[in-house]
Write a structure and sequence with these properties.
By secondary structure, this protein is of the alpha+beta class. The chain folds into 2 domains: 56 residues; 140 residues, tt1808, chain A (Alpha-Beta Complex), CATH 3.90.1570. 31% of the residues lie in helices and 24% in strands. The strands form 4 sheets. A 6-stranded mixed β-sheet has the order 4-7-8-9-10-11, with helices on both faces. The chain has a 3-stranded antiparallel β-sheet with strand order 1-3-2, with helices on one face.
């Protein structure tokens, strides 16, 4: 059974939200750090919010993207989902999915994927929690309110916690940043498509309507 935040912690968050503009909201680390169950309870109390947490316990509340940003993400998710269904070697996840990384950060990539054998190893209970596991592949799609450096730091965090391939797609600069373990970040200017090889065999993401 999920627990909820204490009344004082809930009040602190509500007062902070009420006083801030409609943009990404960063709440300083709560003391003591909230538990997994309390985080799940807070998300359940606020289903309209997309919530992440840093490894230090700082909560990040992200409001919805614009229709243009949503359309880009729709195309991204749809194109990847078609490959996942046809390939069958892994399981795909959309932007509403939250993972607890090994460093205790709770992150929701715009698109992510996990090898089927890793997914099959999870119990039914683990599959229905913000389980402690890192995807094998993640994509972050920059929106008009996203600053680039925090997204780059998030991509580095993914790699440090086990991601094998990461893409940061930037429609503002019309770039694709490719992240792989033990390799320099590869930045492509105005690419028409990018390949997921060798982790995602046969997957090529066409980028028209996503970063152009």
């Amino acid at each position: 059974m999920s627990s909820v935040l204490t009344p004082s912690a809930q009040s602190e968050i509500s007062e902070t939200l009420d006083s801030l503009p409609a943009m990404i909201v960063r709440l300083g680390p709560l003391r003591p750090r909230i538990t997994d169950e309390e985080f799940e309870g807070f998300c359940a109390q606020n289903p309209e919010l997309r919530i992440e947490m840093t490894s230090e316990g700082e909560m990040i509340i992200m409001l919805p993207v614009t229709p243009e940003g949503g359309n880009r993400n729709f195309k991204l998710t749809g194109r990847f989902a078609a490959w996942v269904e046809a390939d069958g070697t892994g399981v795909g996840f959309d932007s509403s999915t939250c993972f607890t990384l090994p460093n205790r950060a709770k992150r929701s990539p715009d698109v992510s994927w996990m090898r089927k054998e890793r997914w099959d190893a999870l119990t039914p209970k683990q599959r229905n929690e913000f389980t402690h596991i890192c995807p094998d592949f993640v994509v972050e799609l920059r929106s008009k309110t996203d600053r680039l450096r925090p997204l780059q730091a998030k991509m580095a965090e993914y790699l440090a916690n086990g991601v094998q391939l990461g893409w940061l797609l930037d429609p503002i600069r019309h770039q694709a940043h490719i992240y792989r373990p033990d390799a320099a970040v590869e930045i492509l200017d105005r690419p028409q498509a990018i390949s997921g090889e060798p982790l995602l065999p046969g997957f090529v993401l066409k980028l028209d309507g996503i970063i152009d």
